[in-house]
Design a protein that fits this description.
A divalent metal cation binds at residues 173, 218, 273. This protein folds into 2 domains: 1-153 and 295-336, 3-Layer(aba) Sandwich (Isopropylmalate Dehydrogenase), CATH 3.40.718; 155-285, Isopropylmalate Dehydrogenase. Helices cover 38% and strands 18% of the residues. The chain has helices at residues 18-27, 44-53, 98-116, 130-135, 143-150, 179-182, 185-202, 228-242, 253-260, 273-284, 319-335; strands spanning 7-10, 38-42, 59-62, 69-73, 76-82, 122-125, 157-161, 166-169, 209-213, 246-251, 267-270, 289-293, 299-302. The structure holds 1,4-dihydronicotinamide adenine dinucleotide and ligand LD2JLWAY.
């Protein structure tokens, strides 16, 4: 086996599409070109069940290194770190219980710890169910916040990236009504700095052009529809410009994406989750990658959720997972 450090894929919700898209990607040869070994942080029985969806049975053999097992499917292999022992017969697609929530947490915690210990080169995450994690006692709304806490980083940025559009979010998992009070000049300025640094480092953009969106319609219409633009957003843009960042705005959110998708900017800084993810998914539903900027470790993810309506059918696309693995591998190579 190669001496290069492995990339770790966390299996995500055992009752969602995570396990089956990992094996779909394996069967499709998606990982063949990777120079690094891949290890799934997951559950052997759940992966066996996922293989059966494609009419395949997998052979399981002892693993080495971080992999407790080797999973062979057709002519291809994958390492597995067996971190849970769930019983697929007791689970129902789309209905994760607290044991599933605990397993999802364990996969992420383990993978993060391996990266922090310098034993692995990065993490690619399959989708979790945040409510099941809560049922297991996990107090994190998503991977982004959990990984930031474990890496002891105060501010990270969720970015979703496709060929035509990249969006970076100032706020992530919170109720819409809480967004205005969560926005501060400092958090926006930090988002701009982190996004700028990351685009320089990993996307070969010497002077990334960052478009900052307004929060309110028509960028607040001179204060008629809100004052966050003048009170919070404009001062952060001015401060970023004073530091030499190519940031501009606040732009009306309804028009800006059209221009950004045609190349006017390298990333769009969005005030809240759906402001950025709706246009992103309209353009890149199949192939966008979610990545966490500002961590000391590499973390990428699929851009979608557990897709319970598809779980167990084999119809879920593995394209976003493939893109997430490719990007994590590129980033890991740049770091090492
Ligand atoms: N990174 C993560 O862990 C994420 C987890 N989630 C979680 O997923 C659960 C469901 O969230 P939803 O908002 O319903 O989003 P979702 O992405 O699971 O589903 C939305 C729609 O997209 C379709 N879809 C999703 N992935 C697909 C794929 N690979 N191929 C083809 N179609 C696909 C689904 O069938 C559904 O129609 C929630 O518990 C949420 O918290 C959501 C987004 C990201
Ligand atoms: N819609 C993307 C998303 O919510 C992903 O969150 P996270 O689990 O990556 O923090």
């Amino acid at each position: 086996m190669s001496m290069m450090q492995p990339l770790l894929i966390t299996q995500g919700d055992p009752t969602g599409v995570g396990p089956e898209i990992i094996l779909k990607a394996l069967l499709a040869g998606t990982f063949d070109a990777l120079r690094r070994p891949l290890v799934v942080a997951g559950d052997v029985a759940i992966l066996r069940q996922a293989a059966a969806i494609y009419g395949q049975s997998c052979e399981i053999a002892p693993g080495e290194g971080l992999a407790t097992h080797r999973l062979r499917l057709g002519e291809r292999e994958l390492g597995v770190a067996a971190l849970s022992k769930l019983d697929p017969l007791r689970l129902k697609y789309g209905a994760p219980d607290a044991a599933c929530g605990q397993a999802m947490l364990d996969y992420i915690e383990w993978a993060c710890a391996r990266c922090l210990a310098g034993e692995a080169a990065g993490i690619i995450t399959a989708p979790i169910n945040k409510a099941a994690i809560r049922a297991a006692g996990g107090d994190f709304p998503g991977h982004t916040e959990l990984l930031a806490a474990r890496c002891a980083v105060e501010k990270v940025v969720m970015m979703l990236a496709g060929e035509r559009l990249r969006v970076a979010l100032v706020t992530t998992h919170l109720a819409l009504r809480e967004v205005p009070s969560a926005l501060t000049t400092e958090s926006l300025l930090q988002t701009l700095r982190i996004t700028h640094a990351h685009l320089q480092r990993f996307f070969a953009l010497p002077k990334p052009r960052l478009a900052v969106l307004a929060l309110n319609p028509h960028a607040g219409e001179s204060g008629l529809f809100g004052d966050e633009e003048t009170r919070i957003i404009a001062p952060a843009i001015a401060a970023a410009q004073a530091e030499g960042l190519a940031a501009d705005g606040p732009h009306s959110a309804d028009s800006l994406f059209h221009f950004a998708s045609q190349g006017s900017h390298d990333a769009v800084i969005c005030m809240y989750h759906d402001q950025g993810l709706i246009p992103l998914k309209l353009l890149h539903f199949d192939d966008a990658v979610n990545l966490t900027l500002g961590l000391p470790i590499v973390r990428t993810s699929v851009d979608h959720g557990t897709a319970y309506d598809l779980a167990g059918s084999g119809r879920a696309s593995h394209a976003s997972l493939a893109a997430a693995v490719r990007l994590a591998a590129q980033m890991a190579d740049q770091i090492s």
